[in-house]
Fold this protein.
Amino acid sequence: MLSVLAAVGMISLLLALPQLSRTTLASWTNSEYGKGTFTASSVRPPRNLSCSANVISGRVTFSWLTPTTGGATRSGYSWAVSGLFTRSGTLAAGATSVVIDVPTLGLGTANFTVWAVSNVATPEWQSTKLAGRIYVLTGLIPDCSVP
């Protein structure tokens, strides 16, 4: 019982004390100024994506025009296929097409994307992606489209 009274007394004492407020001011007084130039850049994407399907070979070709001038120096292209089947790869900076072998067994759709890359920084910079679709009715009858 004595310990309970002691605890109640301590709590009452703590509540009766005025609340002390402590504030801290922080500041930096050593201002410094710099002068220089800054140039922003981006990787220009490939343009005018088109595609064609070859029923005899079971291949689809995606073609594009090189990006407009300007922007960061292009070091190449990356491309990927996802969905019904997957493929990916890289191409040289002067490339304007990629040929994709369509699997002989399959029925459905795959998504194709291509984008320009630049190795001016790490990790590499990437342009926006262009997209197309591959349609497969067995590997003998491929088709494609570009929105």
Remarks:
- Strands lie at 47-54, 59-65, 76-83, 87-92, 97-101, 107-118, 125-126, 130-137, 141-145.
- Residues 47-145 form a domain with the Immunoglobulin-like fold (CATH 2.60.40.10).
- The chain has a mean pLDDT of 83.
